[in-house]
UniProtKB/TrEMBL annotation:
<comment type="similarity">
    <text>Belongs to the OXA1/ALB3/YidC family.</text>
</comment>
<dbReference type="InterPro" id="IPR028055">
    <property type="entry name" value="YidC/Oxa/ALB_C"/>
</dbReference>
<keyword id="KW-1133">Transmembrane helix</keyword>
<dbReference type="InterPro" id="IPR047196">
    <property type="entry name" value="YidC_ALB_C"/>
</dbReference>
<dbReference type="InterPro" id="IPR001708">
    <property type="entry name" value="YidC/ALB3/OXA1/COX18"/>
</dbReference>
<keyword id="KW-0813">Transport</keyword>
<keyword id="KW-0143">Chaperone</keyword>
<feature type="domain" description="Membrane insertase YidC/Oxa/ALB C-terminal">
    <location>
        <begin position="15"/>
        <end position="192"/>
    </location>
</feature>
<dbReference type="GO" id="GO:0051205">
    <property type="term" value="P:protein insertion into membrane"/>
</dbReference>
<feature type="transmembrane region" description="Helical">
    <location>
        <begin position="15"/>
        <end position="35"/>
    </location>
</feature>
<feature type="transmembrane region" description="Helical">
    <location>
        <begin position="84"/>
        <end position="104"/>
    </location>
</feature>
<keyword id="KW-0472">Membrane</keyword>
<dbReference type="GO" id="GO:0005886">
    <property type="term" value="C:plasma membrane"/>
</dbReference>
<keyword id="KW-0812">Transmembrane</keyword>
<dbReference type="GO" id="GO:0032977">
    <property type="term" value="F:membrane insertase activity"/>
</dbReference>
<feature type="transmembrane region" description="Helical">
    <location>
        <begin position="124"/>
        <end position="144"/>
    </location>
</feature>
<feature type="transmembrane region" description="Helical">
    <location>
        <begin position="156"/>
        <end position="179"/>
    </location>
</feature>
Length: 204
């Protein structure tokens, strides 16, 4: 991992910008997996009113309700688990970055923008705020309407948890997370603007 950053540093002349470039390349490489996930998420938003009707119609029959919801997913090519794969792939990257930023001597004392040391937490707490805020924005954009109160609470707690974790993480990892989120938000903004075709429930 250090060799990769040294290469990007030789191009940009800055370890901070090397992190930015590395993040963008990772996001671009993940596009073949991210696009199907965004497509599925957009369709999930579009069929949410129909899901709500099914849940109301079969509220006393959970088995039939689940069956009807799954049929609706299949008709609209929606995979509720599609968002897991890009995240799972990024976990080893996050772990490798965490280890590198803590133990990479070249980053010690190296600043970027307002950050004084990329190997240490942000003493001004700006990065944790940005991490939580961008995570929240990305979550809200992807969140279907009329979700349950439990899901709404989860969507609030996750950004808070991310912000809290970033307080003690190396700033370099926070930069990666924020840039990754901003890229994701831009993707979502343009992708969700495209109208989709929604197929309805077949009564039986």
């Amino acid at each position: 991992m250090g060799t990769i950053f040294e290469y990007f540093f030789s191009i940009t002349g800055s370890y901070g910008w090397a992190i930015v470039v590395f993040t963008l390349i990772v996001k671009l490489l993940l596009l073949p997996l991210t696009i199907p996930q965004l497509n599925s998420s957009r369709k999930m938003q579009e069929i949410q009113p129909q899901i709500a009707k099914i849940q109301e119609k079969y509220k006393n029959d959970p088995q039939t309700m689940n069956q009807k919801v799954m049929e609706l997913y299949q008709k609209n090519n929606v995979n509720p688990m599609s968002g897991c794969l890009p995240l799972l792939i990024q976990l080893p990257i996050l772990w490798a970055l965490f280890a590198m930023f803590r133990n990479y001597p070249a980053l010690s004392g190296v600043g970027f923008l307002w950050l004084k040391d990329l190997s240490k937490p942000d003493s001004l707490y700006i990065l944790p705020i940005l991490s939580g805020l961008t995570t929240y924005i990305s979550t809200v954009i992807a969140m279907p309407k009329n979700v349950s109160s439990d899901q709404t609470m989860m969507n609030i707690m996750m950004p808070i948890l991310i912000a809290w974790m970033t307080v003690s993480l190396p700033s370099g990892l926070g930069v990666y997370w924020v840039v990754s989120n901003v890229f994701q938000i831009v993707q979502q903004y343009f992708f969700y603007r495209k109208p989709g075709s929604v197929k309805g429930e077949t009564d039986s």
